[in-house]
Amino acid sequence: MFEMIQAGGVLMIPILLCSVIATVIVLERLWTLQEKKIAPKHLVAQVWQWHKSNSVDEEHLRALSSNSPLGRVLASGLANRAHPREFMKEAIEETGRQVVQELERYLNTLGTIASVSPLLGLLGTVIGMIKVFADITSMGVGNPGALAGGISMALITTAAGLTVAIPTLIFYRYFRGKVDSLVLVMEEEALKIVDVMHGVREQAGAEGNG
């Protein structure tokens, strides 16, 4: 393995660095973007129980906000529960935008690595072929061993760049889809609690007027 890296030349260093960074990001995102961590089940039901028992206070809001990203979104809505429905929705949407930025953390870096790695490999190919033609110019084609170094550099860097880029691109697309799916779940859950709370209020008001 070390011999292959050495034969690939200096461009193997940034390619290997891209590989290490991509691996760390993928492992971190796989751990972080678990649905049970982002949008725990039964959280909306728990919030609704607090509301029905009239036990929503600052302590509950702090606990809810630190529970999960969905908890942060719900807490921002509950903090404005005394205001009209539109105010609650605006608060939820504003917090939701902040949460989405956190969910998308490092994904741009992952996408950049997926794009740059094959270009680094291509650059290694070009440098390798330049070396081959330089050797041909100085020594002719009678010494295959002299040409092998440039050809090895061209092939190894190309293969290394693609080896890094292909799985990185796959994970980048996967995480993008995962974030979109989680955002949709959080939106549905947050709007559910808003509609239920204000629906009950409106129904109670109508019964009182009747």
List the main descriptive attributes of the protein structure presented here.
single chain, disordered C terminus, 0% strand, mainly alpha, 210 residues, rod-shaped
Fold and architecture overview:
The protein has helices at residues 2-8, 12-32, 35-38, 43-52, 58-67, 69-78, 85-103, 107-139, 144-209. The chain has one domain (2-205). The protein is 86% helix and 0% strand. Residues 201-210 have low confidence and may be disordered. It has 210 residues and is mainly α. The chain contains nine helices and no strands. α6 (69-78) packs antiparallel against α7 (85-103).
Q: What count of structural domains?
A: 1
Report the helical percentage: over 70%
Largest sheet: none
Please state the average pLDDT score. 82
Which class do the helix and strand fractions yield? mainly alpha
> Number of helical segments?
9
Radius of gyration: 28 Å
Molecular shape: rod-shaped
User: What's the end-to-end separation, in Å?
Assistant: 82 Å
What pattern of helices and strands is seen along the backbone?
HHHHHHHHH
Strand content: under 5%
Which spans have pLDDT < 50 for at least 5 consecutive residues? 201-210
Query: Strand tally, please?
Result: 0
